[in-house]
Model the fold of this input.
Amino acid sequence: MAEQASGETSFYAYRPSLFGAPREFSLTGGGIDWTAGGRAGSIPFARIRRLRLSYRPTSMQSQRFVAELWADGCPKLQIVSSSWKSMMEQERLDGAYSAFIRELHRRIRATNAAAEFQRGSNPLIYWPGVLIFVAAAFGLAGLIARAVQAGALASAAIVGAFLVLYLWQAGNFFRRNRPGTYRPDDLPADVMPRE
Done:
């Protein structure tokens, strides 16, 4: 779904759902034009107040990244690194997404020194999530210890395998989505696709 003509990085498109209309974005000299089905608009770079990059895997796409853009008087834009291809498949658009996001940052930096660049999750969601993650990990570890004490080694092994999977998946999510800020000329690798 992503398109680039003759090396241009000023156009990007993805399909957010199988039956939904594609989302299309074009970088112009003064802003970003967007279309989403029957809706369309244009946001001047000078009105962009915040841009957030995050890692947001889904069950169908474990390497999915999202850029969210807020501007005064405009709807929030979401630019996603994967697109629905068929009922059972999403395609990764890593190269096109990375090139478009880098060019977007370059143009914002050139015209809008006041824009804020954030990485990861919203801190109001992230830190409670970390507490729940740690509590659940300790709870699972307690279950393993209790199962071993009771001599239920098969049960301990099953819960242990689940704990390892949980630590790997959720731990990776929290590690990559640590809240913070970044410079627009140095995009954080944790919340960008590998090229």
Q: What stands out?
A: The longest strand covers residues 48-55. Residues 106 and 136 are 41 Å apart (CA to CA).
